[in-house]
Specification:
By secondary structure, the protein is mainly β. The chain has a single domain, classed as Porin (Beta Barrel). Helices cover 9% and strands 51% of the residues. It is built from 2 helices and 17 strands. It has helices at residues 2-23, 161-171; strands at residues 29-33, 36-50, 63-75, 82-91, 98-108, 111-118, 184-190, 197-204, 212-226, 229-242, 254-265, 269-279, 295-306, 309-321, 328-343, 346-358, 370-381. The protein has a 16-stranded antiparallel beta barrel with strand order 2-3-4-5-6-7-8-9-10-11-12-13-14-15-16-17. Strand 3 and strand 4 form a beta hairpin. The relative contact order is 0.14.
């Protein structure tokens, strides 16, 4: 009995030491006991918006707090694949507290298999690394949650809700394949990285978008390294089976293709280019409406990192059929920004976002709004 108590004390002591030592290190909190481990990650992003032009309107709030807690438990086995579970609890002004992800995982030499409610292609298991299947972005912004990326959505939170709703589907064009941000029940597979190649595929039987039923997302990327430089190329594809509801107009199946490249020079300068092509897919069949132009988007970005400072920006152009009336919505947007890291866990950031929007060919009530908004914030991460 005494021996068992002594062994229990040793194990509790080892667990306590693991907790204390992890807190003092950069990166997530990692707890380990024999073959079982628990990774704890969290972030809080506080952002404020200033000076939205009158034409853009203003959102319901001029400041917001976004945060999340992510728990990843893993059990390693000497023979066969390892098992894991991940849950993400998050909060935002739109949803005070919700489950952002809940997944079961099988991990082995052949790759990773997941089943649960989550996004499709992001392949990062732990940490806040960039999504492998995107090629442009705002490296000076928050690394998770609503972000300053072209399709990140943080800028839109400070604009008039009606305008933000029209811009949202356009901001993903050029940045990702359409429906890449879908969060629904999925089965997902991510391959191990071999000879620079990494692949992923996911399937959702019932997508979040009410116009889409079955949703398939697939992607492939390749990395080439030389000296202190990296070339990251690849793309992703989304297929969405349009819903055919009784008595309602049918929706064409969605075929969305995104392709891009990122060149990193000397670990500091990052140049990216990305395009998305949807054509006339994913739309309601309407023989009486004029034929809109093909849905298309392109983004170019440049980011430079020097010590604790990161500066950069991007330009985006996107066009697609609007939801309110026949015709094309067109977005021309740009952003420049900077950040300063006081430590590995704390970052200050700021950006100027400019948007020029044409609503349904200039025929809508919001025809031609243009203007900019300045955003500033602080990110704390565990």
């Amino acid at each position: 009995m005494r021996r068992k108590c002594h062994l229990l004390k040793r194990r509790l002591g080892a667990l306590a030491w693991s907790l204390v030592s992890s807190v003092g290190q950069a990166g997530p909190l990692a707890l380990k006991h024999d073959e079982a481990s628990l990774t704890v990650e969290a972030y809080a992003n506080a952002t404020a918006g200033f000076g939205a032009a009158d034409a853009l309107g203003t959102g319901p709030d001029d400041a917001r707090l976004d945060g999340a807690l992510r728990l990843f438990g893993r059990r390693d086995f000497a023979v066969g694949p390892d098992l894991g579970a991940r849950i993400v609890l998050r909060t935002s002004p739109e949803d005070r507290l919700e489950i952002g992800e809940a997944s079961l995982l099988v991990l082995g030499k052949a790759g990773r298999l997941e089943l649960g409610d989550r996004q499709g292609l992001p392949d990062v298991l732990v940490g806040y690394a960039a999504n492998n299947f995107t090629f442009t972005g705002a490296e000076f912004g928050p690394a998770s949650g609503p972000s300053l990326d072209p399709g990140g959505g943080l800028q839109l939170a400070f604009l008039a809700p009606e305008l933000a709703g029209q811009l949202l589907p356009l901001t993903s064009l050029g940045f990702t394949a359409t429906q890449a941000a879908d969060e629904s029940t999925k089965i997902l597979y991510v391959s191990p990285k071999r000879r620079g190649f990494l692949a992923g595929i996911s399937y959702a039987p019932d997508a979040t978008d009410p116009r889409v039923r079955d949703l398939v997302q697939a992607g492939l990327t390749h990395d080439t390294y030389w000296d202190d430089n990296t070339l990251h190329v690849g793309g992703s594809y989304t297929y969405g089976n349009g819903r055919q509801e009784p008595g309602a107009a049918s929706v064409r199946p969605l075929h969305s293709i995104n392709a891009g490249a990122t060149l990193v020079l000397d670990y500091d300068l990052q140049i990216g280019l990305s395009v998305t092509w949807d054509g006339s897919t994913g739309r309601v069949r309407n023989a009486e409406a004029p034929s809109p132009a093909a849905a298309f988007g392109a983004v170019g970005s440049v980011n430079y990192n020097r010590g604790p400072w990161t500066v950069g920006g991007y330009l985006q152009w996107a066009r697609a059929e609007g939801d309110d009336a026949p015709g094309n919505d067109e977005l021309r947007a740009g952003e420049i920004g900077f950040s300063y890291r006081t430590s590995t866990r704390l970052r200050l950031y700021g950006a100027w976002y400019y948007v020029d929007f044409s609503d349904e060919g200039g025929s809508g009530a919001l025809a031609g709004p243009s203007g900019g908004i300045f955003l500033a914030g602080l990110r704390a991460a565990l």
